[in-house]
Queue: 3 jobs
Job 1
Amino acid sequence: MYSVIIRDHMMIAHSLNSKAFGPAQKLHGATYVVDAEFKSEKLDENSIVIDIDIATKELQKALAPLKYQNLDGLEQFNGTLTTTEFLAKYVHDTISQAVHSSFSGDLKITLGESHVAWATYEASVK
């Protein structure tokens, strides 16, 4: 298996309105390190998994509408618990839609919430 990993970051604010989240029910900030790992069993005709420039730009585009935003105020997340796991899938789905015609393989998105906690979502790009 081959892979290419691209990294970016985003700063967001949100609240997690459920008793399961204790003090995180209140509005708080998070800074995520975001890794997008593109995986493929084989290389394409140019001997690459994906063009690194394309991968970088698509990760940046996926994160741009979220950066420096209070996710509680974004219409697409109305009534949603924007957990780290949820955001990993959201970023995955956004990038998958953009690269599905030029990339064949799996995409793994990892959001690092701190040096001791992170969440991942991985699935095939279709």
Job 2
Amino acid sequence: MEMKDNQFQIELKEDVAEGTYSNLAIIAHSTSEFVIDFVRMMPGVTKAQVKSRIVMTPEHAKRLAMALQDNLMKYENQFGEIRMPERGGYMPGGTFKGEA
């Protein structure tokens, strides 16, 4: 990362720019960090893979939550309310504490 006059440039490598699909996030925390595992679950498959793990400080986790909330409001203002399907789907157990 390169800084110039309170601005910085962010490099986005081609393989990262493609993105990684995830339809489940599992969140854990300690006193000093939050861990978010991004998982891809497929219908009819009982084993899922963690595709990416992000570790951040509690302050950055709160900033992320605020940024997501802000962007969700902007999205819904532009495209309409995001409707949530009934819980369960192909999720084993259907318990969603700490999961997104």
Job 3
Amino acid sequence: MERLSMEDIRRLADEAAIDIPERVRRFAPVVGVRYGRITIRNQKSKWGSCSSRGNLNFNCLLMLAPPSVRDYVVVHELCHLIELNHSKRFWNLVAGVLPDYRKEEKWLKTQGMLIMRRMTG
């Protein structure tokens, strides 16, 4: 599998800076949360994260995943603004928005590492 150049990563980050906030804006009212800053990062191990202050971080490599997987990661992080854990309540929140989320979660587990391995350096 071909490694991503820094130029590729910059292009993905630029695309993600448009795509991901649109998804966050669409799903935040569905989840019922308000959020702070959205940051796009170049990460080697995480697809997304959130802070207790409501700031959201997303990996630019998400742009190499199908749109439904990007939706899943966005919903996952938005649900963490309610439940900062992976409890049954958290997963019920995710399922309430994306009933078939397990399909996307499985895609990330099987294909995600292949994408992460494409990182430069």
